[in-house]
């Protein structure tokens, strides 16, 4: 018996260890009243951090919240190429000729889910409920990681409202009028921008973190608001055991929303899904149970045992080490095919990256020797070895811009993909990073020890990356210390500027590749820009791109931005992952989203196919 088969047998016999135990607690002994429930079961590989939209900066929380909070606009789930359409808005936005003023109408008759904060009153959504989330992000007391993005968009008066709270050392004035985001009447929102924003409408799509939020709910729960998300969406939070289990239930007061989409005429898969579901009321499942299963093998075994329905999307992927067993030679394994398991595969709109804290005294800075150190560390990274950890389900990244977005050029090549220990050593020698005390390890130019502190997580795949990282750094004689914390804790430290070097991933939230450049935009330092990179030349490119329409001039700015990112190397962009999704036959209608995270309300569970023991 091979080690893999033996581990499978042991895992199945023991009820899949802790993952199975958590799921058993979530679904213990269904009674007659709950046996017929349609429950979608998901397994996240990392824990959520918060369900307060103003505080969220991680994929896992962001995968849950769009099922609770709704944006003004959404992406058509089946349309390829993508299409933006109204969600809570009544029609598409109108704009001035110069793209500085945009007006949106909110559809009347949409209500928040019931909550004690409303004191028994059914609360209708108004235009002001879309102004309030912007105010919360601008409020310095919330320390929102989203502020940099709002600031760079340039809403008239919003930065000034924030500054008044900072300078006056008094609470943010939520009753003050802000010219750039204003409720003109009960159902009309007007946005005024300092500069033209030709792509502003797409920015309103999928922006659930700026979805309708009731001020009285936030004030009612105070500092416990992250555990009390109250939105207008198809689900509401039923149970939350932090870093362990999230249970959403159907919002019983959700308005009548029927399945509809516009797949291309030649899109056979999309047309088949539409034919099956068109006109069905949403959501189609009663509950969603999200279990945090950080280790790859328990997550894989839990799927095989039928205790989670899918290994798919970035938050709950098929573990790369099991790709050869699941998809030998790129085809579904016969034993899985016999069980009716389905699969799909494509290059993600994402990138994994190694980031350097630009404020750190060792790896940060803009002087030639600091740039040389970062570039040497980057040149020492064996990308093919990392792709091997992904079982060849990845391609080298050449720039920050990710596939399927504007500005991504598959023909663009840069030092980002280069692996050259010889060049790395030569750079270090040239700039004075040599062994001065004879201990075999390089020192800083001033003679002090050179030691890198590399942050990581305890998951199996990170342990594999840690081994490659240390081997790469040992090869160029740079000492490194590996410091392990949970992913959410590392994110918290990174936002506070307390990590030196860390590897993580980033996914696109829309089709405009400029979103990838937010990671290098100075005003977004500590938010999207975890590296705290501040370069006026890059900021000028970023800000010019925002006002330009799509075209050759904007594409040239993409190219210039990529070259600056490579030259200064605040991040080493590593790979774009190829994601394979596997799902059981009782999960009906699944299709991987391109940029968005909300799809749980768009699938069904066939309880006649799901084994009785797994219902």
Walk me through the structure.
With 615 residues, the chain is α+β, with helices and mostly antiparallel strands. 30% of the residues lie in helices and 17% in strands. The protein contains 20 helices and 20 strands. The chain has helices spanning 3-13, 17-26, 59-64, 128-138, 147-153, 158-168, 200-203, 215-221, 268-277, 296-304, 323-326, 334-338, 368-379, 383-389, 421-430, 460-475, 487-495, 514-517, 536-547, 552-568, and strands at 39-44, 73-75, 84-86, 94-95, 101-105, 181-185, 188-192, 235-241, 245-250, 287-292, 310-311, 342-347, 350-356, 394-396, 451-456, 479-484, 501-507, 571-583, 587-588, 604-605. The strands form five sheets. Strands 11, 12, 13, 14, 15, 16, 17 and 18 form an eight-stranded mixed sheet that branches. Helix 19 (536-547) runs antiparallel to helix 20 (552-568). The longest helix has 17 residues, at 552-568. The radius of gyration is 25 Å and the shape is globular. 44% of the residues are buried.
């Amino acid at each position: 018996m091979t080690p893999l088969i033996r581990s499978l047998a042991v895992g199945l016999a023991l009820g899949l260890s802790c993952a199975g135990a958590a799921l058993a607690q979530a679904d213990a002994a269904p009674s007659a009243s709950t046996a017929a429930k349609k429950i979608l079961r998901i397994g996240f590989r990392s824990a959520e951090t918060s369900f307060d939209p103003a505080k969220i900066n991680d994929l896992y929380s962001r995968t849950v919240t769009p099922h609770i909070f709704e944006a003004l606009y959404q992406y058509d789930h089946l349309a390829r190429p993508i299409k933006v359409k109204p969600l809570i808005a009544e029609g598409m936005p109108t704009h001035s000729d110069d793209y500085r003023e945009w007006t949106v109408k909110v559809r009347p008759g949409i209500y928040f889910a019931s909550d004690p904060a409303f004191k028994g009153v059914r609360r209708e959504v108004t235009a002001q409920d879309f102004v309030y989330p912007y105010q919360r992000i601008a409020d310095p007391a919330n320390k929102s990681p989203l502020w940099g993005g709002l600031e760079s968009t340039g809403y008239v008066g919003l930065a000034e409202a924030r500054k008044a709270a900072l300078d006056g050392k008094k609470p943010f004035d939520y009753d003050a009028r802000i010219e750039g985001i204003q409720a003109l009447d009960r159902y009309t929102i007007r946005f005024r921008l300092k500069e033209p924003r030709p792509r502003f409408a797409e920015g309103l799509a999928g922006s659930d973190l700026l979805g309708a939020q009731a001020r009285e709910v936030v004030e009612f729960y105070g500092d416990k608001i992250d555990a009390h998300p109250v939105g207008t969406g198809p689900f509401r939070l039923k149970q939350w055991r932090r870093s362990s289990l999230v249970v959403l239930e159907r919002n019983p007061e959700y308005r009548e929303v029927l399945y509809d989409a516009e797949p291309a005429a030649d899109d056979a898969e999309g047309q088949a899904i539409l034919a099956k579901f068109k006109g069905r009321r949403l959501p189609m499942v009663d509950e969603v149970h999200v279990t945090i299963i950080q280790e790859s093998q328990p997550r894989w075994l839990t799927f095989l045992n039928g205790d989670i329905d899918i290994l798919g999307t970035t938050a709950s992927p098929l573990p790369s080490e099991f790709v050869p067993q699941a998809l030998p030679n790129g085809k579904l394994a016969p034993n899985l095919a016999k069980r009716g398991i389905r699969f799909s595969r494509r290059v993600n709109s994402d990138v994994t990256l190694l980031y350097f804290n630009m404020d750190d005294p060792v790896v940060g800075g803009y002087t030639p020797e600091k740039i040389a150190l970062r570039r040497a560390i980057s040149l020492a990274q064996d990308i093919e070895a990392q792709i091997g950890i992904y079982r060849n389900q990845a391609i080298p990244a050449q720039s920050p811009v990710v596939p399927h977005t504007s500005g991504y050029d598959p023909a663009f090549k840069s030092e980002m993909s280069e692996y050259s220990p010889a060049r790395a050593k030569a750079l270090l020698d040239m700039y004075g990073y040599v062994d001065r005390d004879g201990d075999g390890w390089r020192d800083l130019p001033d003679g002090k020890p050179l030691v890198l502190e590399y942050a990581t997580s305890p998951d199996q795949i990170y342990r594999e990356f840690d081994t490659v990282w240390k081997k790469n750094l040992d090869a160029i004689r740079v000492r490194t210390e590996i410091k392990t914390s949970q992913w959410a804790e590392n994110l918290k430290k990174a936002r506070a500027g307390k990590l030196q070097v860390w590897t993580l991933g980033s996914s696109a939230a829309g089709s405009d590749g400029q979103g990838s450049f937010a990671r290098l935009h100075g005003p977004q330092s500590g938010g999207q820009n975890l590296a705290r990179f501040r370069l006026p030349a890059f900021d000028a490119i970023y800000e010019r791109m925002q006002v330009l329409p799509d075209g050759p001039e904007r594409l040239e700015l993409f190219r210039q931005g990529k070259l600056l990112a490579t030259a200064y190397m605040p991040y080493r962009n590593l790979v774009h992952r190829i994601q394979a999704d596997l799902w059981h036959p009782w999960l009906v209608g699944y299709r991987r989203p391109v940029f968005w995270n909300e799809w749980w309300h768009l699938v069904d569970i066939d309880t006649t196919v799901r084994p009785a023991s797994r219902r």
